[in-house]
Design a protein that fits this description.
This protein is α+β, with helices and mostly antiparallel strands. Helices cover about 25% and strands about 50% of the residues. Helix 1 packs across helix 3. The protein is globular. It starts with a strand and ends with a helix.
Length: about 150
C-alpha cells in the first residue's frame, strides 16, 4: 500500500475550495485524468454519497466507486473505495484550513493499494501525477473564475 500527501495554499476561500471538490460531476472539467463521473447516490443536500469514476491510468481506463463522508464538512471531505478494477484501496481526503480571509491551506492525502504490483519508479511517477492533479489543478480551478 502506498500513501501520498501534498499541501498547498490556494488564493480562495475555504468555502470556494470545498464547493469545487464536492462537485464531483465536474471533475472531468478540471482533473486531468478523470474521464467520466456518475453520481450513484446523493444526500439530502444533493451532494454525492457514492460516485462511479472512469479515469486514465497506466495507459488504460481504471474504474472505481467512491463513497463520501461529509461529517467534518466544510473542513474535511473524505472518501473510501467500495469497488475498483485495478485498485483494492483508493481512500483519501481533502482538508481545508482558512489561513486568511481569502486563502486556504489545502491538504490532500491518498492511500492506494493496487491489485497488481508495479515497479517503484512507475509508482512514484503516478503518485506525482495524481498529487499534481488533486492539488495544483484544484488551485487553478479555484483561482480561475470558472465554476
Amino acid at each position: 500500500m502506498e500513501h501520498a500527501s501534498e499541501e498547498l495554499v490556494i488564493a480562495g476561500s475555504l468555502e470556494r475550495c470545498f464547493s469545487i471538490v464536492v462537485d464531483v460531476e465536474r471533475y472531468p472539467l478540471w482533473v486531468a485524468d478523470i474521464r467520466e463521473v456518475e453520481v450513484l447516490e446523493r444526500n439530502e443536500d444533493d451532494l454525492a454519497l457514492t460516485a462511479r469514476f472512469r479515469a486514465g491510468a497506466f495507459g488504460r481506463s481504471a474504474n472505481y466507486v467512491l463513497s463520501y463522508d461529509y461529517s467534518k464538512a466544510p473542513n474535511v471531505l473524505s472518501w473510501y473505495q467500495t469497488e475498483g478494477d485495478i485498485t483494492n484501496k483508493l481512500n483519501g481526503s481533502y482538508e481545508f484550513e482558512a489561513t486568511d480571509i481569502d486563502t486556504t491551506l489545502v491538504k490532500y492525502s491518498l492511500e492506494v493499494d493496487l491489485k497488481v504490483p508495479i515497479p517503484g519508479f512507475v509508482k512514484r511517477r503516478i503518485e506525482s501525477h495524481i498529487l499534481h492533479a488533486a492539488v495544483w489543478d484544484l488551485k487553478d480551478m479555484v483561482e480561475s473564475r470558472a465554476h
